Amino acid sequence: MEEFLEHFKERTRSEQRWLSDVFEGVRRQLYPLISSSMGLTVEQLTLAVLSKVQRAVGSEVTSLPVSYRLLSLSELTHQQHTACCSSLSWSSAHYREQARKAERALPDYKALPRDNILLIGYLCDGPAAGVSDGVWWVRDAGGSVPCEMLKSSPLWLGRLMFFPTWNYIPQNAPAGGGKAAGYLELIDPPVCVTPEPMTFDPGGSLTEAMGVKRAAELLGQRCDVQVCVSGQVRAISPLLLISARRFFCLILSEEDSSVPVLITEVKHQYWRQTVCVGQYICISAVRVCSLRGWAEHSVLSVTAQSRLHPHVQLHENTEDLETQLMETDSQTHTDSHSPEARVTSHAPDTCMTSNSPDTHVTLASCSATPVRTKHSTLISYKGLITKVLNAEAGLYEIDGKVGLCLAYQPVQKCGGGLRPGTEIQLHNIHFLYRPSPFAPDVVLCACLRSSVQVTAFSPLSSGFETAGTQSSLQRHLLEKNLGASQYLWLCYCQGVIKERLCPRWVREERVCVVAGRLLDCVCDTEPKTNRKRDIYREMLQEAHQCPVTTYYVSWPSVVLWSVRQLCDWMNGEVWASLSLSSLLPPAATHMTGVELNASLAWSADTVSLTKAHSQPLLLVGVLELSSVYGTLQLRDQTQTLNCLCVETDQSGARITNISTAWLGCLVCLRHCTLVMERFMKTHFPSWKHLDQTSYITHKHCRVYLQFCVSDLIIISPSAAMSISLMEKKRDQTDRREDGETSNRREAVKRGRDDDDDAQSVKRPLTSCVSLIFRLQSKQGVMFRNSSVSNTRSHSHKLQLSFTARVTSLGDVQCWNIDPKNRKMQERETDGQNTEMEMHFVDLCVRWFPILHPGSLYRLIALNTKDVSVLKAESISVRGGVKLLSNPTLLINNQWKINTLTDTQSDVPAVMTVSEVLHSSSAPEIVSFYGVISQRITLQEDTGTKPSVQSVTVAKDSSVEEGLKVRLTVQDPEASGQMIQVYVDLSCGPYTPGLLPGASLLLNDFQRKVSKACNVYCRSLPISCVTVTGLGSVGSGSGGSQSPPPMMLLGDWASGGTQQCIVGQVKGHVVCVLSLRLQWMCSLCGSIFRQGSCSRSSCDSVSAVFQAEAKVVVEDGSGEAQVWFSSDTICDLLLLDAGQWEGLQRHVRVKGYVRVYTRGHNMMCDEEAEDSLVQYLCCLCSSNTVCRLISLTCRQRAQRTGKSQLRKVCRGLTEFISKFPPALQLHCLQIHTDSH
Ligand SMILES: [Zn+2]
Ligand SMILES: [Zn+2]
Fold first, then answer.
1. pTM value?
2. How many angstroms separate the CA atoms of 565 and 596, rounded?
3. Distance 1082 CA to ligand 2 centre (A)
4. Is the backbone of residue 586 left (phi > 0), alpha (psi -120 to 50) or beta?
5. pLDDT tens, 108-120?
C-alpha cells in the first residue's frame, strides 16, 4: 500500500485517502480473481484501474474523482435499494439535460437519480465460475450481478472491466430466497482494465468460410464435416430452457437461401446477447446434424470448438432496416392505423407473405355475429416503451399506442430491461390489428422467432420491478395453447378480478384460475385446438407457423362490468329512456290531473343484459343474502345489487329454486333481466303539460336483477355447493351401479363412509346441533312488533320479521363436525314430526328468499352440544297463560340453514284465480297463483302518514312511503278470468318483481266481495307475495297473452261457475241509452265552462274533455248494457278525428251536454232545440251507431243484483214483467274490423 501511495505523494490528504480505499477494494474484490498468468501485482492492477478511470473522467481533468466510491458488487446489491445511475464521464449539466428530456417525453415518470459509484468487475457468461447461463454477468470476488448491454463482443468474455456509465435497477427479492437482487444496464461500453490478449483465435480459418447457399446444400448431403459458415442474421430465437437443456437458434441468410443454426453448447450461449438481426457473422466449426424434435430436419449445430466472429464487412444493421414504410397491399386498413414510419418492412425477411386473402370467417355460435380470423404479418419495428401495461402478463405499450405482447416468449431475466423509456427494436414480430377490444388497436406479438433488442436503456425510474419468473397467466397460455386474442382477454379478465374480487373472495394465487374459467365460459363454443406448440417449427421452418400466425379479430369481446358499473348504467338508463307520454294509456288526453299523475307514479323498464351494451356483457360476482332487504344479492368489491331469483321449470314438473348452496358461490351471468322501476311524484295539471319537467317534484328508482337458477354459471363453488355437486355425482354412479350385487354396493358405501370419516379428521372439529325441517309456508317480511324478543329492553321496537310454519322431522341431533348440507342420515329423521313456528327477526330475515314451501332444510347451531337450543317452546304471554298455537322457535342470527333438497315436494296446494273468483266455498283467507296483467299505484291517503315511517326511513331512505298498489292478476290457464289484488307495500322492505307479465304466488290473502258483488283480494299482515316467473314490461303490457274468450251475452248474463270477467262480444247496438259529453276542470273535476272552472274558488285554466255512453247491445242470445268511456266513444259514434274535435269545441261553450233515451226518442233535459243536442240525438239513433259491433268488454259488476220489474207493451196491453238483472259491461276496446 505504501509503495502504491508513493506514486501520489503530491496529492492532497483526501485524495490519498480515496486512493488507499481504491487500492484496498482492488486487493480484496478483484485481485483474487485475476489469472496468475498475467503476472500482475495488486499495485500494478490498481494503477491500471486508475488510468482507465482517469481516462474516463477526461484527460483535461487532473484531479481524482474522489466523490466516487468504489463499491463491490455485494455492497451494491445490499446498499442500493432504489434504482440509480452513475456516470464518470457525464457532467452535471449533461445529466440534467438528459433527465429533463426523458421526463418531458414521459411526464409520468421521474429520471433515475444520480449516484457516484465506481464499478469494476469481470464480465462473465454466468453468475459464478464454471456456470454459464447465456446471460452477461459482472463478477468480483464477493458477488455477481446480471447485466444488460446494448452491444457486446465475444472478446469481452472473462475480462476485467471498468464500467464508466450504467444504471442499477434493484428488484424484488425472489420469494423465499430473501436475497437482495438487481441488475445493471451498461450504457457506455465497458473499458478493459487489463491489457488486450495477444491473439484472438477464431478456431478455424475465416478464409474458408462458406456462404449460406453452400451451407444449405450441405444440409441436404448430411456429411459429417466441420465447416465455417458466414451470413447475415435473419432471425434469432430467445434463449430457451427445455427439459434442463438451454439453447437458442439463429437463421443465417444470403439472398434467397437460409440456414438454421442451433446453439446448444453451454459456453456459447452468451452469443445470444452479442448477435443481432441484420448483423453479418461468421461461425466456425459447425457441423450438420438432424434435429429429432423437428421431423429429422437437418440443421447446423455449433461444437465446443466453434467461435463466433463478427464479419469483416460489418454492416450497420439498423440502416437498411429503417428504410421504407411497410406496404401491405392486401390490407386495406393500413393507411388508417399503420403506426407511422416506424413500422418498417425487413426487406429480405418477408417470409410471411401468404398472398391468400387474409381474412377468414368462422362461426362461433356463442355470439350471433361471426368471428373473423385473420393472418398476421411479420414486421420489424423500432419504438419507445411508454408504459408497462401488465408486467406479469408480458404486455407493454410502445409509442403511446402500440401494444407489445411478449407472452409467447420465455420470460427474460430481469424483464429484459423493458422499462418505460426504453428504446427497443423488434424483428420478426407479428403485426396484429384489433385482436382484442381490451388492448391497443395494433398489437405486436412476439413468438419464438421474434427478437426483442434494447437499443437504448431508459433513463427513467418507473418503480416496476419485473419478477423475471413465469407468471400464472403465461403458464395458462402454454397449457391451454391460447391464441393472442384469447390471451389478451384473459389478461383483461385477470385485471378485473384482481380489482373487484381479490382478496376478499378470490385469493391472489387463484386469480388466474378464475380468469381461465371465465375464458372457458366465454369461449365455450370455440373448438379447442389441442395441437401443442412445435417450437422447432416455430423457430426454424420457413413458411413460418406459430400460435400467433392467425388471430381472431376483436374476439372474445365480452365486457366484464362491475356491479357498480351495472348499477350506474341502470340508474342512468332508467331516466334517459323515460318518455312520459309513452307511460300513459291512450285515454290520457281525457284524464284529469289526479288520474294522470296516478298513472305516472310508477313505471318500470326491463332490459335484457345482452341488450345493455353494444358488446356482450358478463356479470361476475358472489351471491349473498341481504338482511336489510330480505333479498338475494350479487356483489363484488365495488357494490351490491339486489337480485330476484325465480324458479326454473326444468324438464317437466321439476321446479328448481335457489338453495343455500348458492350462497358464497362466485358466479357469472350471461343472461338476466335488468329491471328498473321508477317512482315519481308529479303534479301535472293535464297531459298538455307533460313537457314541463318542473311538475315532477320527486323521483327515484329501484334497480335490480332478475334471473333463473339455470342462468347462474358457477365459477368457483362454495363449500356447500361442492358437497351438493359431489353428492349428485355419487347418486348418479350409485344408480349406474344398481346392477351390481347389493353386497358389493354395501361395501362401496361403507368405504365411502370411511372416506367421510377420513375427511372429517382433516376438518376442524366443531360440535354443533341440528334439526331437519320441511317448510310449510312463510309470511311476508314486514316491520312487526316482534312478539318474541330475546332482549327485554327492545320488546317494543318494530323489527323486520317473518314467521314460517314448518314441520320438524325427528329430533335435534348432535354432531362433532358441521354436517352442512350433507345427505340426511337416518338418525336425523328418527322420531316424531312436530308442527312448529319459526320466527325470523331482524338480521335473520335474510333467510327469506331461500326458504321455499315444500323444501327440506337442516338448521344448525354451531359450537354447542346443547340440544335444547333448537327445541321449540310454547310462548307464555302473560302470567303463564299459554297461547293456543304451535310451539315456537326464535331463530338466532348465528345459526345456519342449509337446503337439503332443492326440489319441492308436498307443496301445499293453492287455488287458481278462477277458483278464488267463483268458488262459493272459498275461505276468507286464500292462497292462489296468477299472472300480473296490470299494476296501478293507489293514491296515498293524504293526512294519514304510514305508521312505520320512521323505521322504514331509517332502514332505507328511498322507501316508498305508504305505497299501496292494485294488481290485476290473471288466470294463466283461463283467459278472461282476472282478479284485483290490493297489496300494501308500505310495511316492509320493497317487493321487487311485481311487473306486468310476472307469475305470482299469493299466500294468505283476504278474499272480499264488493258492494257491486265483485270479488277482490287484499293483503293482510300475514300475506306473502312470491314472484315465481319473470315478467317483462314489454311483453306483458296491457295484459293478456292470449285474447279473451268469445262470449255469448246470454251465457255471460246467466253466469256459471266459470263466469268470465273479460270477454269478446259480437252484437248489435240496439240503442244508445245515454250519452254525456263534458269539459272538466283537470284540477278539481268541476264543469269547465267558457275557459274557466265553474267552481268559484278554483283558478284552474286547464280542462279535459270527457265522455260516457251507455248502450244496449244484443247478440241474439241475450242483451247487455255496455258502458263506453272517453277513449272508445269516438269509435262508437264512428267520428273521424276532425268531427270529434269539432264536437268537443261545440261542447266547450256550455261545458256539459247529456242526451238520453226516453221511450223511443232521444231527448235532453234542457234546450232541446239546440243544434248540438239535435245533432247528437240524430246521430245516436242513426244506423251509423246502431250497427253490428265487435267489442272486448269487462264485466262491471260480477254478480248482478236483484231482478227488475219492467213495463212491457204488447199492442194495447201493458204487462209488468220480472226481468233478470241486465248484464253490465264496460267496453275496453272496439274492434274496427267488425264490418
Ligand atoms: Zn410467429
Ligand atoms: Zn277547478
1. 0.87
2. 34
3. 7
4. alpha
5. 999 999 999 999 9
